[in-house]
Write a structure and sequence with these properties.
The chain is an alpha+beta fold. It has a single domain, classed as L-fuculose-1-phosphate Aldolase. 37% of the residues lie in helices and 19% in strands. The chain has 5 helices and 9 strands; from the N terminus they run αβββαβαβββαββα. A 7-stranded mixed beta sheet has the order 3-2-1-4-9-8-7, sandwiched between helices. A two-stranded antiparallel sheet has the order 5-6. The chain binds zinc ion (ZN).
Length: 208
């Protein structure tokens, strides 16, 4: 069982996040999925296929930390296991956001296979939890896209157990995953990533 009042609070935070992310154009065409922790064993997550700018009470459901629905007949997001994999690795994570922006999609296709995306020298790197200076590079892995979510969940979990300092990851041609202690932290991480993606792509356009 989970606390219904706590669930209502985090479900609201998910709907608010959806309105913001949809407005910014980062969650088009019912793509993306968002989650927030209800307690140690329960996660509130968006129901599959819902419009992310218009999330209401019926568009968020509870799964356990293994991704199984709790007291719900709805179908959780297809990528639920990617969320629960992160909550298992990061016990202090309170929210996980997955977005499908143009810039994340384009940039993820430009990073050569086997290489990390690296941000270096940007003041805004300090928006990520634990980053105190622009002088430390922030690196982001890019996983190949797949419809085998179980395998990808396993790969991402193994990766972040070894690289817990990295604040997010990209799926090639698909989108961004990032997390935070609170929904506000997590939204700040999405915005920071989007700013950095934009800077990288703008640099590529003007570089001779
Ligand atoms: Zn996705």
């Amino acid at each position: 069982m989970f606390d219904v009042n706590q669930y209502a609070v985090v479900a609201d935070s998910i709907a608010d996040a959806g309105r913001f992310l949809y407005e910014r154009g980062w969650s088009p065409a019912t793509s993306s999925n968002y989650s927030a922790r209800v307690d140690q064993d329960h996660i509130a997550i968006t129901v599959s296929g819902r419009h992310k700018g218009q999330l209401g009470a019926g568009d968020v459901m509870v799964v356990d930390i293994q991704g199984r629905p709790v007291q719900s007949d709805s179908r959780a997001s297809a990528e639920t296991l990617l969320h629960t994999a992160l909550y298992q690795v990061f016990p202090d994570a309170g929210a996980v956001l997955h977005t499908h922006s143009v810039n994340a999609t384009v940039l993820s296709r430009l990073v050569p296979a086997g290489e990390l995306l690296t941000f270096d020298g940007y003041e805004l790197q300090k928006a990520f939890d634990g980053v105190e200076t622009h002088e430390t590079a922030v690196t982001v892995p890019v996983f190949d896209n797949t419809q085998d979510i179980e395998a990808l969940a396993k790969d991402t979990q193994e990766w972040f157990l070894k690289h817990p300092e990295q604040p997010g990851y990209l799926i090639r041609g698909h989108g961004l995953y990032t997390w935070g202690k609170t929904m506000a932290d997590c939204l700040r991480h999405v915005e920071a990533f989007e700013f950095l993606f934009e800077c990288e792509l703008a640099t590529m356009r003007v570089r001779p």
